[in-house]
Specification:
By secondary structure, this protein is of the alpha/beta class. 28% of the residues lie in helices and 21% in strands. It folds into two domains: 6-104, Rieske [2Fe-2S] iron-sulphur domain (Rieske Iron-sulfur Protein, 3-layer Sandwich); 120-346, Flavodoxin domain (Rossmann fold, 3-Layer(aba) Sandwich), CATH 3.40.50. The chain binds FE2/S2 (inorganic) cluster.
């Protein structure tokens, strides 16, 4: 048959186990070869979604499941799973001669990618005119039915009230405790390209509520004031649960040289019965700097009564009765908002940056 280009892969027995593998034929072609029910199949190794390596996935009946975000393609025809048959990857013919396995390097079908609507959060961040917008994010964990007094959240609310009433800002409070959202599933650990914007979890699970944080941070807010308690010398576990999911914001800089956070200010409120304020603040400053946030002078306020202070009820009354801390919260809001006004007026951060030595592997969707 014309147009055939048979290539010997090797002896048949060499390709029966494992049941799915990737085979690099040359610089332009890598295939996902499968063997199941005494039948070989060969399709392109490149997933239609974001180029994940199909041959490194797993088999689910006759479908190859992409290791990155679980899209499925028939291991022989290359068609997408039922309902998505038109979303297909190229298929390659195979033949066996004298116990050798051959592949026709010319595919019998072409790649076809169905259009998938982009997630609303993936729209270009553009600041709409209007008052400075301040979002407070409380990372305190508590029983939703029986909420307790949170010193960090209390100071955060004071800061937001002040921003609204005295600084004429629009404000919003997000309590992570009220949101149902999944932990990061570590797509980035598979490949920088597998960590998407918005987060792959957000794109695949409409019930995941971290979209509210993404929307606020990337699109709505000019200022974020984040509050956390100190838990064994670190920020709250809810903070870290959120922070891991924010990797997708930073990762856009790595994989696309795209800065999602521009001309935005972050500041922090940190309280705890025992100490380690500087460590918690240091982590947050480093992390939010990597996301693209800028900081006001003296970007956090904090309160701690020291290592031996186990009388926690006094910690609460300390904060409740401290006019210094309340004034400090207001002043943190003021410094943050004033900084935001200056930064926005000057449009300080432009679109392009020179990467600081970071580069992710590019995925090219050829065959
Ligand atoms: S499912 Fe394959 S790259 Fe996302």
């Amino acid at each position: 048959m014309s147009g055939e280009n048979w290539y010997k892969l090797g002896t048949v027995d060499d390709f029966k186990d494992p049941s799915l593998r990737e085979i690099k034929i040359n610089d332009k072609l890598t295939i996902a070869l499968s063997f199941c029910d005494e039948k070989f199949g060969a399709i392109s190794n490149i997933c239609n979604h974001l180029g994940g390596p199909l041959g490194k996935g797993k088999l689910s009946e006759d479908y190859v499941v992409c290791p990155w975000h679980n899209w499925k393609f028939h291991r022989i025809t290359g068609f997408g799973e039922p309902g998505f048959e038109d979303d297909r990857v190229p298929r390659y013919r195979l033949k066996i001669e004298k116990n050798d396995l051959y592949i026709d390097l010319n595919p019998t079908t072409t790649r076809n990618k169905l259009p998938h609507p982009s997630h609303p959060i993936s729209r270009e961040p553009v600041r709409t005119s209007g008052p400075i917008r301040v979002v407070g994010i409380s990372t305190t964990i508590m029983d939703k039915q029986n909420p307790r007094y949170s010193t960090s959240e209390k100071l955060l609310k004071i800061a937001l009230e002040y921003a609204k009433n005295d600084l004429n800002c629009n404000t919003m409070l997000i309590s992570l405790n009220d949101l149902n959202f999944k932990s990061c599933e570590g797509y980035y650990s598979k490949s920088a390209q597998a960590c998407t914007w918005p987060c792959s979890i957000t794109q695949m699970d409409s019930n995941d509520q971290l979209d509210k944080v993404y929307e606020a941070l990337v699109h709505w807010a000019d200022v974020i004031i984040l509050s956390t308690p100190i838990r064994w010398g670190a920020a709250s576990s809810l903070y870290y649960k959120m922070a891991e999911r924010l990797n997708c914001i930073q990762n856009q800089i790595t994989v696309r040289n795209k800065i999602l956070i521009k001309n935005k200010i972050a500041s922090f409120i940190i309280t705890g019965g025992q100490d380690n304020v500087q460590d918690v603040a240091g982590h947050m400053l480093g992390f939010f700097a990597e996301l693209g946030f800028l900081f006001p002078q003296f970007p956090f306020i904090a309160h701690s009564r020291g290592w031996s202070a186990e009388d926690m009820e006094n910690n609460i009354s300390d904060v409740e009765n401290s006019s210094d801390l309340k004034e400090g919260a207001k002043d943190l809001a003021r410094r943050s908002v004033e900084m935001a006004r200056i930064i926005i007026a000057s449009d300080l951060v432009k679109q392009k940056i020179v990467l600081s030595g970071r580069k992710a592997r590019k995925i090219e969707m050829k065959k």
